[in-house]
């Protein structure tokens, strides 16, 4: 134990020096010191960032533009506490584990719509999440079940898409790069008076590489087509209506048995909402209807033909009302949320067999959430939230969260939180619709208790921000095993610290950095797989000239444990790696931007998942053109 503490203290001592002296940094700046920042997803209704006790990161449109990343997961690698594991290349299955938790413990929203896939163990396949048409990404770390329910054990990622912001806009973009990678798209927007609408479309395609040489020599490609629609109408000074719709479909190839396999995927998310605010500002009401459809169809190659090899499908519907009452010039707020969630799941072909093949299973959850926020004095914020869920399979569960924020001075903010969370077993764990799979009808939800505390400080006349968060979480009833899932008898523990800094060296250079130490152990005291103890990133955004910007991104992932390729063999240790990515943006005119990206600049040879190859050096170039 003493050795762990020494390592943690040494890491925390070195990183501030590293962050300040380095000329590299991460893309996502921590927003703890930005008192004007408004957060959509840290509460039942939007709040100022400095009034939240959560550890928060916001990635804005300018950062997304400068990084020129193809996938959202590439951006999230820079977020403190986030461990990304990609089984191959662009488009391959990608998991994210937050603060040592499981990959299905992170709730993911797109414009407030839940997009965790019930047919994929409640996970989000980050490998197919394109950065196109994204305006902003809010990341809230720590348990949020008291506000968001079952999937929000370790945090929430809310992806906010772009909307129309001028009378008429029209843009096109095109990009090409290594391995026959192309990306093309357009967007059209219109805003007039009380009405706004924006439509965007993009298509990405790449030949890829052979991601698993041990099973064959085929090249594994990927394609992704996305359409995003967002509209709003201000019916009156008090009533706003909005609609969001996002469709993503495509194909990714992978290696298996037999050698060549592929999967077609389709994701369709919709939300209709209305928000009413009273003229005196004391009441607000919001209702929303959301729907998500997921389709996954697998194919295998037999005798030079593509043959169906199983499929999964699921649907999630959410009906929600949120009402809030304000007092004392909004220094107090009481919010109530009523919600019903309906989920269904079907699997057929492939491993599914017997009477359970093509069986439709479903479950419903009704919930009531109460949140109270109070600023007793200008420098203090207190908040408490509680949620009761009634699931027709598991019965009732209750989660809670307490928050406290103290603005000690203009340069120092202290924050702390304690919370409980719950994760219901997935459809696969419950029903096991596979040949030879033995499900356990006695599975119970996983339960988590955690606390965190930290500070955010400002130095050098506001040019340097530093934030530190310590977190400690205990997970009980952890579900483990694939062919016979069981609840663990002993609790697993996750302890660690996140350090962030943002340093404006001068008017031209901004440096952001993050370091995370995570000690994640199961109930037997064994280190959890695919959770590196040390993860760091540094990002430098440099304005070379008035129309030229350069971004340098460095990502370090420490060594980590993973499963062996052969059943029964001992676990393996994947070596640490460091990646350097460079991008440049040149504004040729008011209408034309040209950009260049150099990924894995030094051609690092590494693996994130044992047995799966990753991309070496890659180059891409593209342009964005404003037609209107």
- The share of residues in helices is under 10%
Largest sheet: 22 strands, antiparallel, barrel
- The fourth-level CATH homologous superfamily is TonB-dependent receptor, beta-barrel domain
Overall morphology: globular
Would you kindly provide a brief summary of this structure?
The chain has 628 residues and is mostly beta strands. The chain has one domain (2-304, 316-626): TonB-dependent receptor, beta-barrel domain (Maltoporin, Chain A), CATH 2.40.170.20.
Notable traits:
628 residues, mainly beta, Maltoporin, Chain A, 22-stranded antiparallel barrel, 5-stranded mixed β-sheet, 5 helices, disordered N terminus
Structure description:
With 628 residues, the protein is mainly beta. Helices cover 7% and strands 57% of the residues. It contains five helices and 35 strands. It is globular. The chain starts with a helix and ends with a strand. Mean pLDDT is 89; it is low at 1-35.
């Amino acid at each position: 134990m003493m050795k762990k503490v020494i390592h943690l203290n040494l890491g925390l001592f070195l990183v501030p020096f590293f962050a300040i002296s380095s000329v590299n940094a991460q893309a996502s700046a921590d927003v703890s010191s930005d008192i004007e920042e408004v957060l959509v997803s840290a509460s039942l209704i939007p709040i100022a960032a400095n009034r939240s006790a959560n550890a928060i990161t916001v990635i804005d449109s300018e950062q997304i533009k400068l990084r020129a990343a193809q996938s959202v997961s590439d951006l999230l690698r820079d977020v403190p506490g986030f461990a990304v594991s990609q089984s191959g290349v662009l488009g391959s299955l990608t998991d994210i584990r937050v603060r040592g938790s499981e990959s299905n413990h992170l709730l993911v929203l797109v414009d407030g719509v839940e997009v965790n896939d019930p047919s994929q163990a409640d996970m989000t396949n980050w490998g197919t999440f394109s950065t196109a048409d994204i305006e902003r990404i809010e990341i809230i770390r720590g348990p949020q079940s008291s506000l968001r329910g079952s999937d929000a054990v370790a945090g929430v990622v809310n992806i906010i898409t772009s909307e129309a912001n001028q009378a008429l806009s029209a843009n096109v973009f095109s990009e090409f790069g290594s391995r026959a990678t192309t990306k093309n798209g357009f967007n059209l927007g219109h805003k007039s008076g009380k009405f706004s609408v924006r439509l965007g479309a993009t298509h990405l395609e790449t030949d890829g590489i052979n991601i698993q040489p041990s099973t064959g020599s085929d090249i594994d490609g990927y394609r992704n087509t996305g359409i995003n629609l967002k509209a709003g109408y201000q019916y009156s000074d008090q009533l706003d209506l909005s609609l969001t719709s996002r469709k993503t479909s495509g194909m990714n190839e992978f290696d298996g048995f037999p050698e060549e396999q592929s999967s077609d995927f389709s994701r369709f998310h919709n939300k209709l909402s209305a928000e009413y605010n009273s003229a005196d500002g004391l009441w607000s009401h919001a209702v929303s209807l959301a729907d998500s459809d997921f389709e996954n169809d697998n194919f295998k190659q037999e005798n030079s033909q593509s043959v169906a090899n199983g499929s999964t499908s699921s649907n999630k519907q959410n009906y929600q009302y949120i009402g809030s009452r304000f007092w004392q010039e909004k220094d107090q707020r009481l919010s109530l949320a009523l919600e019903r969630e309906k989920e269904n799941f079907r699997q057929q072909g492939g491993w599914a067999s017997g009477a359970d093949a093509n069986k439709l299973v479903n479950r419903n959850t009704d919930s009531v959430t109460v949140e109270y926020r109070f600023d007793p004095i200008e420098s203090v914020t207190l908040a408490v939230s509680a949620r009761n869920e009634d699931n027709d399979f598991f019965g009732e569960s209750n989660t809670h969260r307490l928050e406290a924020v103290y603005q000690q001075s203009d340069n120092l903010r202290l924050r702390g939180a304690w919370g409980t969370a719950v994760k219901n077993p997935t459809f696969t764990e419950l029903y096991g619709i596979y040949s030879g799979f033995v499900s356990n009808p006695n599975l119970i939800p996983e339960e988590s208790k955690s606390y965190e505390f930290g500070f955010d400080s400002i130095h050098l006349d506001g040019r340097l921000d530093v934030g530190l968060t310590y977190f400690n979480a205990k997970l009980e009833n952890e579900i483990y095993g694939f062919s016979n899932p069981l609840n663990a008898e002993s609790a697993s523990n996750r302890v660690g610290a996140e350090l962030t800094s943002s340093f404006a060296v001068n008017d031209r250079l901004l440096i952001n950095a993050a370091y995370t130490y995570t000690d994640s152990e199961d109930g037997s005291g064994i280190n959890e797989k695919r959770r590196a103890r040390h993860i760091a990133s540094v990002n430098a955004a440099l304005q070379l000239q008035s129309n030229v910007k350069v971004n340098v991104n460095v990502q370090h992932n420490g060594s980590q444990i993973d499963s062996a390729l052969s059943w029964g063999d001992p676990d393996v240790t994947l070596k640490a790696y460091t990646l350097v990515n460079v991008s440049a943006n040149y504004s040729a005119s008011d209408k034309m931007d040209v950009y260049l990206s150099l990924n894995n600049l030094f051609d690092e040879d590494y693996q994130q998942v044992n047995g799966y190859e990753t991309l070496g050096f890659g180059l891409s170039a593209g342009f964005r053109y404003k037609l209107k």
